[in-house]
Write the structure tokens for this entry.
Amino acid sequence: MTVIINYKGQIATEVGKEIEELSFHEPLTLIQLLQALSERATDAVSDFIFDSDGSPRRSLLIAIDDEQVIDFQNTLIKDDCVISLLPPIAGG
Amino acid sequence: MLTESEKLTYSWQLDVPGFGESEQLILKNSTALVTRVGGLGGPLALSLAAAGIGKLILAHAGNLREDDLNRQILMSRDHVGKPRVQCAEQTLNRFNSNIDVQIFDENVNAENIDKIAGHADIIFSCAPLFEERFLLNEAAIRGDKKLIDCAMYSMEGQIMPILPRKTPCLKCIYPDKPTQWERKFPVIGAVSALVAQIGAIEGIKLLCDFEKSSLGKLIRIDTSTMDIKKIKLLPKRQDCLACK
């Protein structure tokens, strides 16, 4: 299964790129995908995804195929989907 | 009623299908709060003035600095050291003398929010801090005011039109305080101005019930690729502390 990760805002700056294609051998949920991203990322990137107690940050907006998702535990990732990680921005 | 001078001034936009004298009158009779008037709020206020909004309320503390000039296009070099909001008022009054401009040389805070936002029909939130944005979000909900939240970062921007208690609010999408946002952010003025124009258009559509608004959507712009997307937001959170 292949998915596209779309990094936006400060996460893109920390990751150093905006798009990444990842492959997985088994089906996984959104929370499992976020954990996989966090494990391979720097602490700074991981901090945008999870708070200090290991919960996904509720201020990180996540969209799959341009639709907001908040049920991280039960959302199953589909092949070829695009997952956007949108940290809050407030520049004026 | 529109005066003959107003009919002439706005004649080119009165030709836009669906936008006629009744819509122009709605704009004339509307009051918009824009906070702040920097790289985003400045060009947004200018476009509202051009469109013929009746009254603009501007809130922004402090004096213009030289490093504001790459984006704060209501100001000019001879304004450096002078109150930003006064410079903005002068520019807007020169541009369109038919509109009223009220200024506050202060940033929105918990003490002044009702004084500043109380008479606005619509709020354009362009503040660089989430504390201000959440206060404006709460003020919009409390006063049942339309809200257009406009923000940018580097080459990206986003616009979120909000109808309080009907569509998701800012706190619905950011339930917790964003702790990692930094006051200083990378900015090319043209990106801020682009976000401002989309915010102004969404506000005009919402005020005049004209064309199709983007309520319930988050408009996302990435000027590095020139992609524009609309993220479909979930309905407002049942547990939202701001708009439940």
About this structure: Residues 189-208 of chain B form the longest helix (20 residues). The first strand of chain B starts at residue 31 and ends at 35. The radius of gyration of chain B is 17 Å. Strands of chain B lie at 31-35, 55-59, 100-104, 122-125, 146-153, 156-162, 217-222, 227-232.
